[in-house]
Amino acid sequence: MVSSENGTLAVLGGAPVRGPEKAWPSWPQFDDAERSALLGVLESGKWFYGDRVAAFEGEWAAFQGARHCVTANSGTTALEIVLQAMGIGPGDEVIVPPFTFVATASAVLRVGARPVFADLDATWCLDPDRVAEALTPRTKAIMPVHFGGRFCDMDRLCDLAADAGIPIIEDACHAWGGHWKGKGAGTVGKCGVFSFQQSKNITAGEGGAIVTDDDALAAMCRSLTNCGRAAGMPWYHHENPGTNVRLTEFQAALLSCQLARLEEQTLRRERNAMILNNGLGAVEGLIPQPKSNRITRRAYHLFCLRVVEEAFGCTRTQFLAAANAEGWPVSAVYPLPLYEQPLFRKLGGYEGVRCPVAEDLCRRSGTWTTHEKLLGTEEDMGDIVRIAEKIKAHAAALRASGL
Ligand SMILES: Cc1ncc(COP(=O)(O)O)c(C=O)c1O
Questions:
Q1: Ligand 1 in contact with 75 (CB < 6 A)?
Q2: What are 60-73's pLDDT values in tens digits?
Q3: Which residues form the catalytic set?
Q4: Same structural domain for residues 154 and 270?
Q5: Please, which residues bridge with residue 403 across strands?
Q6: 79 CA closest ligand 1 atom index
Q7: What's this model's pTM, rounded to 2 decimal places?
Q8: What is the CATH number of the domain that holds 317?
């Protein structure tokens, strides 16, 4: 029998490296802890914003190493609340990457300010040189995204922000449990925002959180998330133009259970990602996100990998078709940088924006593998590396196939 490594690619009719009998870990994960916690809330009759929300906020602040945590019903609303709490609004600019989920930029629009896109560097995160060029007297904040869980160069971004006298709002919606030089994600800048949506590494289906060491900012975020109320004041006392983006007790109970697993899962993902970084990084034309010794613990929401067509030997589309047929579920990244989305085309003013690094990721080279695969075994990681090596060995045949 011809081994699958040497045989024909599965996408061209050969046997796959990994058959359907080998399942990948599923997501979300839960057990009796979540079952009994949910039942406990149900039977308590107290379903709304109470002790369990407060308990989770304490746990999350401690986990990230922040003085305060204020929850919200999504990462999107948490970003909007932070911007509003900082008084950012019409006439102001916020520097954001163009390669991120839309919320990073749409939150800026929703407070009436203007997102200004700065390109990425090889990390898939904001390039500090491009940020420096984008700063104007109107810039009121820099909002880096730690893409896939990989920190931006926070030393340089913090220097730029300090020189300009503006805050950094970390969009840490992929970076739960990550550490930059020993500091938790969201605590390196002025504040950080997290998402607990279903696809995320800790989830209640939906949910979000803000962490900060700033007492006044935390108090304003608390008020804005809770109808403008103020601590210690009567229920129908409203001080600020707030909204209702509170978490429920059900969500908080789920999140506390999920958090109990997060540390172990973060370390497991990191160990497995190391196997992929070494194995895939050794294949000519495949480039994982670069490492940095300043990232003392790397969260992995996505395993991000560039397929460089010229060096690898076939297109990203061909690579993805082949990889999936071999049993490695991997996909192309966002199809467009945000400034090419209809939202920004309709707004106008973004026609001249060009971010070549982000455009290359979107159009040609970017792929991601979602985090739950990294909860698999070493053998699972070995399968991914073998698949990449097999595709590389057959890249010319794949290119010639016209797939
Ligand atoms: C980088 C980033 N920022 C913000 C968000 C928004 O979070 P949510 O989906 O909880 O609103 C997401 C969610 O996908 C995200 O990936």
A1: yes
A2: 999 999 999 999 99
A3: 101, 171, 174, 197, 200, 229, 236, 246
A4: no
A5: none
A6: 4
A7: 0.97
A8: 3.90.1150.10
